[in-house]
Amino acid sequence: GSAATAAEGGRGGTVLLVGLVFLIGVYGGYFTAAQGVLLMAVMGMLMTESIQRLNGIKNVLAAVVNVVAGAVYAFVAPISWAAVGLLAVGSIVGGLLGARIGRKLSPVALRAVIVAVGLAAMVHLLARQF
Question: Cα(126)–Cα(95) distance, rounded to whole angstroms?
Fold first, then answer.
């Protein structure tokens, strides 16, 4: 609810949360890299929900961004339907497995996995730049 969303920041906290989630969605629609980590960081700071619940919300938000971005790209860019099929299957399987595993992990273990994946992605992206 809105009380959990504002994280004691009231309406200003909710506006900040929605604004940051929107900006992450725009970023995620184009790049996708670390979108989940960014969402978890912002929601973790601005929401009082459990980490498992935040992870679920993150998955839904990322799915919405991917569907919207995919629909836009379908009309404005050439498409490799074989790649789309592979990505769709991988996303569905990964989402289902990730949600199942995420619900079973303790909050500490889930945080550790999120941090480890985020750090690995950051190192990988930085290594490609140099």
Answer: 26
